[in-house]
Amino acid sequence: MMHGVLQALAPEVRVVNLTHGVPAQDIGIAAFFLARSRGYFPQGTVFVAVVDPGVGTSRRILAAFDGGQVLLAPDNGLLGPALGPEAEVRAVDVERFALPGASATFHGRDIFCPTAARLARGEVRFEDLGPRIEDFLRAALPAPARTGKVVRGEVLFADRFGNLITNVEPADLEGDPHRWSAQAAGQALDWVRTYGDARAGAASILVNSYGLLEIAVAAGSAQRTLGVGAGAAVEFER
Known about the structure:
Layout: H1 2-9, H2 27-37, E1 46-48, E2 61-66, E3 69-74, E4 88-91, H3 94-97, H4 107-120, E5 145-147, E6 150-158, E7 164-166, E8 181-184, E9 187-188, E10 190-191, E11 203-207, E12 213-217, H5 222-226, E13 233-237
Parallel strand pairs: 1-3, 10-11
Antiparallel strand pairs: 2-3, 2-4, 5-6, 6-7, 6-13, 7-12, 8-9, 8-13, 11-12
Helix pairs in contact: 1-4
């Protein structure tokens, strides 16, 4: 139905699904995907980010202009990690842009998409969406902790292949991960460059396409093999 609204109001606009892989109501992971993905889209892109457990409540709907792109999201923290320091954020005038008889439980269809369509078509200027604000919520993903020669991180989520995406970057390991041993769920992890380099059935760790360390089992599922998921500890020792 969201696609239907966009096609009805802006039939010439190309619509791309970024992901349907966000766990239900997980604002932090939605913020992660938006922050890690938006740099691959051109200027002029309008993002409609709807992971919105508070739909229909007094939470605001936000529009942010940053780097030539516009991002629409509920005021629940989702936008924070995706925005640079120069971003301009406004609270959308819902009454002005909503479809007639807007549902209290489907703002993606009835408010976000009509607003996005009018922006994409140039029918409304960003400055006219609503008042500028500074007090919006910003989500924060858990950060790894370091104690001496040990860095402790955690699994953020498991993707559809069962790969375990952690919150640790190579920079957290002084830019040279291979000088560190790695373990999760009591098992040592093999360092590999890519999935095809892994030993059959062995849990491995590599730098993934998000620039984060990821635990994987080639042609298998690290989630099933290790029996862990989001929140599981991963430890690195120099």
